[in-house]
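Hello,

Our lab assistant flagged a job as stuck in the queue for most of the afternoon. It eventually completed. Since we weren't sure the result was trustworthy after the delay, we are filing this so someone can double-check. Below is the sequence as submitted and the structure that was eventually returned. Let us know if re-running is recommended.
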Amino acid sequence: NGKYSHGYGWLLVELGRPGIGARFRDLERITLAMATQGFPVEPGKTTGLMMADMATGRLKGDVRDEKASRINVEFKVPLGQVPAVVEILQRVAPELDTVVSVGIMRRFAPDGGLPDLGVPAYPNGKINVGLGRPRAEG
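-- returned structure --
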């Protein structure tokens, strides 16, 4: 498969959950932070259609205050840089008004093993690393 090449991971960052939701301004906080560190939004995804500038991570102005039950964005990251990306997301998460989950898609190595990412990972499970927090009112 040409898209999922060895040496790269595709981080799927999911904002919100049904019942909590997320606003696109929270997405923009993530895309801006990622772009400044050299990780633009992966083109060709639905979220990319809402971008005013893929290189900077800036969203179109008319979508920032819109809310969805959840918003997904994908980034292509060299496997050796996954820990740095997790640090970026951990830095931004406290600024968000929603919850965040991060998943990674990657290929098995030619020997059948999974490359070490430098962060806890399980080959058969979904990991929620606890980024973000729900906000409960009254």
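-- support follow-up --
The delay was a queue issue, not a problem with the job. The result is valid. Helices lie at 24-36, 82-92. The longest helix spans residues 24-36.
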